[in-house]
Specification:
Blueprint (H helix, E strand, L loop, with lengths): L18 E6 L5 E6 L2 E3 L2 E7 L3 H8 L2 E8 L2 E16 L3 H13 L13 E14 L1
Antiparallel strand pairs: 1-2, 1-5, 3-4, 4-7, 5-6, 6-7
């Protein structure tokens, strides 16, 4: 597992930086989605709902890549290649509320749809490169 350089951890934790998450479609073509991002115990956390394209893609192929730019300085960024190490439903609803607090300043995730099952994808970084 690669270590995220300490001077870039803020992009994953305290800054409202979006990650562009690249996954692979069933035909092997790339698919990119901007996502909220979190970081815990050396792993990148992505929260989504079951059935979405990124959920289906990461369930079928664990390889992913992320690009995260500093919202205050786009020339400062980190690129990460990794793989899904774990998928967790327990605590995912609470986690998306915490992400809503970080990114929107709201206590509850406002886009919840009836029947949504939230899930956290824990991504293990395998390599990373930085600029800035």
């Amino acid at each position: 597992m690669a270590k995220i350089p300490g001077e870039f951890v803020d992009l994953l934790t305290t800054k409202k930086a979006f990650a562009d998450l690249a996954t692979l479609m069933p035909d092997g073509s790339p698919q990119v989605t901007p996502v909220w991002v979190d970081y815990k115990d050396g792993k990148i956390l992505i929260n989504t709902a079951r059935g979405r394209v990124k959920d289906r893609n990461m369930s079928a192929d664990r390889r992913v890549a992320l690009a995260i730019s500093d919202p205050d300085n786009p020339y400062r960024h980190i690129q990460i290649r990794g793989r899904v190490a774990n998928v967790v439903e327990k605590g995912a609803a609470e986690h998306i509320d915490a992400m809503a607090k970080k990114y929107l300043g709201q206590d509850k995730y406002p886009y919840h749809q009836p029947g949504d099952v939230r899930v956290i994808y824990e991504i293990e970084p395998l390599s990373c490169s930085t600029m800035g």
